[in-house]
Amino acid sequence: MTSSLAESLAALENLPGVAEAVQSARTACTEIRWHNALRRRSAEARAEATVRSARSSAALEGARYPVDLVRDAARGASALPDDASGHLTQAAIRVYSEAEQVEKSLATAPAQALARLHLAAAGGLLPAEQVGRPRQGTELPQDGIGEPNDAPLGAALGARLDGITSLLSAPPSAPALVVAALVHAEILTARPFVAGNGLVARAAAHAVMIGRGLDPMGVVVWEAAHLDAGPAYHRSLQSYTTGRAKAVGDWLISCADAVVKGAGEGRAVCDAVTMGRVTF
Prior knowledge:
- The protein is mainly alpha-helical.
- The chain has one domain (2-274): Fic-like fold.
- It is 65% helix and 0% strand.
- It has 14 helices and no strands.
- It has helices spanning 2-11, 18-32, 37-40, 42-60, 67-74, 84-101, 105-108, 110-122, 154-168, 176-190, 197-211, 222-228, 231-240, 245-274.
- Helix 8 (110-122) crosses helix 11.
- It is globular.
C-alpha cells in the first residue's frame, strides 16, 4: 500500500506544469544550502526563519504584527498584546517551535504528532477537552476553508484524517513538496480540529519539508509567499476542495512557487545573519 501511495503522489507531478514547478522548488532549496551563514551560524538563521514563518502564519489568520515584535516575543524579550490577535500570534510561535520537535515523528507517528501540534496551537485558546484531539460528534470547525456546516463529520472526518496520516507516513521516495502541499491543503479543507486548523496545517507542512529533506536547514520561509499572495492563497485552497485535477495541480504549482520565493526570503535571512543584523 505504501509503494502504491508513493506512486500515486509521484504521478501528481505529471499534471500540467507541476513537474517543472516542483523541480524549480527543489533547485531553489538546494542552492540555499550553500550559503555561508549555514556553515557556522545555521542555528541563528533557522531561528530567524522560524520567527518569520510563525509571523506569516499568524498573519494569514488575521493577526499581523511586525517581525521585530514577533522575534522579541519568541525569545522572551517582550510580550505580545493581551488580546485575540496577540494570543493567536503567540500560538503560532508555539506551534512552530513544536514543529521542530515533530519533524521525524510526523512520518512514524503522524496522529500523535498532529495532536502535539494542535496542543501547541490551541492550548489556552479552546476548552481543554477540545485540545489535542479531532472534532467529535456534531462539533463544527471555527476556522479553515469552507462553510462550517459543510465540514465532514463522524466517519467522513475519520476517513479524511486517515488520508492525512497516510500522507504523512508516505515512504521516503514520495516527493516531499507534494506531500507537504497536500498535507497543508487537506488539514485546512478537512478542518479536523475545532480551531487552530490553519496554524497546524502550515506548521505540519513546514515540518514535512524539513523532515523529508527538501529544506533540511529549515530556512525556507514559504509561508511569507502565501501571505504575499493575498486572497489568491484562499482562492486556490477553495478551488482545491472541488477535487478537480486542474485545481489540485494549480495548488501544487502555487506551493512550489511559494517555496522558490520562500527560499529567496531565506537567503535574505542568511544575509542578515552573516552581517550581524539578526541576533538570537
